[in-house]
Amino acid sequence: MRWLLLCVLALSACGCGSRSPTAPTPAADFASQFDSLWSTFDRDYSYFDYKHIDWNALRDAYRPRALAATDQSGFIAIIREMLSNLHDVHVVIRDPGGATVTTYDPHTFTNWDRSVWDRYIARAGWTQGQVDWGHGVLDGVPYIVIGGWGASSIRTADFDAAFERYRTAPMIVLDVRMNGGGDDSLAFEVAGRFMPSSITSGFVKFRDGASHASFGPLMPRVVNPRGPWQYRGAVLLLIGQRCASSNESFISAMRQLPNVTLIGDRTAGASANPMSYPLANGWSYTVSRWIEYTADSQVIEDVGIAPRVPVAATTADFAAGRDPVLDFALSMRPPS
């Protein structure tokens, strides 16, 4: 079983040349590549003002170094260093083979450990789903894990079929601590099974003009009820610093419901709606294009979403075979 612990970005590599990426490249090509990338970010990137990034100063600092590179791989290394100043996990570079080169790793602590978790589900009568999700009954409590929001991770119909088993349960533990994101439309379809009515889960706005402060209007994100029935019992939603991107959109939606309690650690604070752009020689890069807000108008990027009930977990806990977050949730089960 494969678990997706990193935010999955649906990007496509675009080849724009036949030369080997390590072959010597004329300096003029590096100038063109650098200026095209810099201008694209200047036009579309959403977080310059929010993060207090002086993009012009970065151009002045890195352009001479980029033009002095001796080959494409050296040029990419300099570009990567420049983009690391954005502190944005959604800004990545892709090589000609489609492999992702990150520009920023926040080194966050994940309050979920796979080996410890395996011991818990061994007593849960576990049913493994498609790839990154599954369900069972743990200590008398329905326990559902969704490890990624993507078609390769979970199908809506499969979730619905499993969910039917827990229709009358007074409480469900829903664990998304290891979920780095994916397709927010799929996330909202699952969230719709909990929505008694349509809710505004948050807002987004996109760059709209030459100024870094120029944006279009705030657009509400609405999640609608879905399916023949909606779950009304208590939902304990387990979250942590690995929760990012579309998973934070899901969490933002779920926390609007009075029967949902967020437990664990603050989420990653990484929301972007990135788009991929070609560079040269088969390389490409991504640009974050929106600012996402929670329903109470708080920016998600670099802040995240706080749990209602913080529960700490440490490497020492995992070494001892304990999962304090899951233990706490199970301790909340109603008396039989």
Give a structural overview.
With 336 residues, the protein is an alpha/beta fold. The chain has two domains: 27-102; 114-272 and 289-331, 2-enoyl-CoA Hydratase, Chain A, domain 1, CATH 3.90.226. Helices cover 27% and strands 19% of the residues. The strands form three sheets. The protein has a seven-stranded mixed β-sheet, with helices on one face. Strands 2-1-12-11 form a four-stranded antiparallel β-sheet, with helices on one face. A three-stranded antiparallel β-sheet has the order 8-7-13. Helix 5 links the parallel strand 5 (141-146) and strand 6. Helix 1 runs antiparallel to helix 2 (55-67). It is elongated and about 75 Å long. The model is unreliable at 1-24 (pLDDT under 50).
Q: What would the CATH topology of the largest domain be?
A: 2-enoyl-CoA Hydratase, Chain A, domain 1
H-E string: HHHEEHEEEHEHEEEHEEEEEHH
Cα radius of gyration in angstroms: 22 Å
Please estimate the helix content.
25-40%
Largest sheet: 7 strands, mixed
Residue-averaged pLDDT: 91
- Tell me the count of domains: 2
Question: Which spans of ≥5 residues are poorly predicted at pLDDT below 50?
Answer: 1-24
Q: Oligomeric state of the chains?
A: single chain
The coarse silhouette is elongated
